[in-house]
């Protein structure tokens, strides 16, 4: 039973991250994206708070200016920046949420939402995902499978 519970905790982190990664890989074009405007840091903070995030700071955070876009679905939101913005985005997330829990980013258990930060090709990507119920994880797994099959044929 302990192993099952451990795997459920792992699924709660891995499923949202996998959904976002697949969304990023499958949606390589700009179709479906919304162009952001203003301080992207405030957008990230608002989305994290709306999903149950618990930042360590909300005032005096560095601004993230420049070009950015996002895509949102029932599982969370992904925000995209030019790869040159990685350091600024990393500094912002560390200021708002503290040091990352893992190499992938911040864990739901630590900050109330799963947040990942990575460089992929010419993009800096941030994913924000609320905790998921078993039903949501099942739907996310189904979406992963469908997207994977659609783009590997």
Question: Any overview of this molecule?
Answer:
It contains five helices and six strands; from the N terminus they run H-E-H-E-E-H-E-H-E-E-H. By secondary structure, it is of the alpha+beta class. The chain has one domain. Strand 5 and strand 6 form a beta hairpin. The radius of gyration is 15 Å and the shape is globular.
> How many separate structural domains?
1
Strand segment tally: 6
The percent range for strand residues is 15-25%
The 3D shape can be described as globular
Strand order of the largest sheet: 1-2-3-6-5-4
Q: Which spans of ≥5 residues are poorly predicted at pLDDT below 50?
A: 1-8, 24-30
SS-based class: alpha+beta
Distance between the termini: 37 Å
Compute the gyration radius: what is it?
A: 15 Å
Biggest sheet layout: 6 strands, antiparallel
Number of helices: 5
Provide mean pLDDT, rounded: 80
Helical proportion, percent range: 40-55%
Please provide the ordered H/E string of secondary-structure elements: HEHEEHEHEEH
Task: Sum this structure up briefly.
Helices cover 46% and strands 20% of the residues. The chain has 5 helices and 6 strands; from the N terminus they run H-E-H-E-E-H-E-H-E-E-H. The chain has a 6-stranded antiparallel β-sheet, with helices on both faces.
Notable traits:
globular, single chain, 153 residues, 5 helices, alpha+beta, six-stranded antiparallel β-sheet, disordered N terminus
Topology:
Layout: H1 2-26, E1 34-35, H2 40-50, E2 69-73, E3 76-82, H3 86-97, E4 105-106, H4 108-111, E5 114-120, E6 123-129, H5 134-151
Antiparallel strand pairs: 1-2, 2-3, 3-6, 4-5, 5-6
Helix pairs in contact: 1-5
């Amino acid at each position: 039973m302990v192993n099952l519970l451990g795997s459920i905790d792992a699924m709660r982190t891995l499923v949202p991250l996998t959904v976002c990664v697949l969304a990023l890989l499958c949606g390589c074009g700009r179709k479906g994206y919304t162009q952001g405007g203003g301080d992207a840091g405030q957008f990230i903070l608002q989305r994290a708070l709306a999903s149950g995030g618990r930042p360590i700071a909300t005032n005096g955070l560095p601004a993230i200016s420049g070009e950015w876009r996002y895509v949102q679905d029932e599982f969370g939101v992904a925000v995209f920046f030019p790869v040159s913005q990685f350091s600024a985005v990393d500094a912002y997330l560390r200021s708002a949420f503290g040091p990352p829990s893992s190499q992938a980013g911040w864990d739901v258990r630590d900050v109330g939402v799963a947040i990942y930060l990575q460089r992929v090709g010419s993009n800096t990507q941030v994913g924000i995902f609320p905790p998921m119920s078993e039903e949501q994880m099942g739907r996310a797994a189904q979406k992963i499978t469908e997207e994977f099959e659609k783009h590997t044929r």
